[in-house]
């Protein structure tokens, strides 16, 4: 099948609340791969909460009328002259959030390219996967594990990778107790990694079906978002973009515990009480994007530990409905666009 000149794709018309229809389906030119880029025919693209932040303007505009989407599973259909030979025509490939780093700053040299001040991101700085075609620098394209359907792989490429980094940042001790606040696409994958590594997992989330899923996956308890867990926590991860839960999660930590905040956007955090929330060496830290090493480690883990991916499918022309369902808590697990 040849490559057309135009394609269907969604773009951010004007950032704002979903009720104002900030995204629109349009006829767009098929992107040309740069010298070091692959051209990918999109099969599936996950719907991430970061896409919602881009559409609604919670994140500043980096590219006007950007095509959202950064959990892309597709096949290679072309490349630039300098793309190398790691991928061939028809190879299944993944495109994630982190698209480019400088490779030269002190953060990149220290192996912390997620903190590169010159980093660029798919679906924010450059058009992403809510379309029939997308491009990716070959050095930032991901090989994908076998044994998964395309719609199961898509959420792994951001929800899974970021959840994995958040789990590492939470510093769960061996056999420790992990609290998870919010239980969507990223959390339900991170919980499975934690359980496979011997952690005791407690989930606090607003949705009844999400609590049921947490228990089905092996969580020791599942309760409301602001409820105290049944035991003191060694570590916690906040996936819900709700700043009001930060004091709640810190208060649930045992001495020496760590709370990792996994979202790229968070509503305002209420005032903290030093004695109650931070004293006794409790740690509050953020999680920023991921490194390619994180992605490789997580995808290798997924290749050797079959993860259950709870994915709700939508057609490409239903992307606006998928984003609205995500905002209103109607998605259990992860949402994916079948392109």
From TrEMBL:
Pfam family, any one: ADH_zinc_N
Domain Alcohol dehydrogenase-like C-terminal: 188-301
PROSITE patterns cross-referenced by the UniProt entry: ADH_ZINC (PS00059)
GO cellular component, one term: cytoplasm
Enzyme class, first EC level, given as a word: oxidoreductase
GO MF, one example: alcohol dehydrogenase (NAD+) activity
EC number annotated for this UniProt entry: 1.1.1.1
Protein name as annotated: Probable alcohol dehydrogenase AdhA
UniProt organism field: Rhodococcus maanshanensis
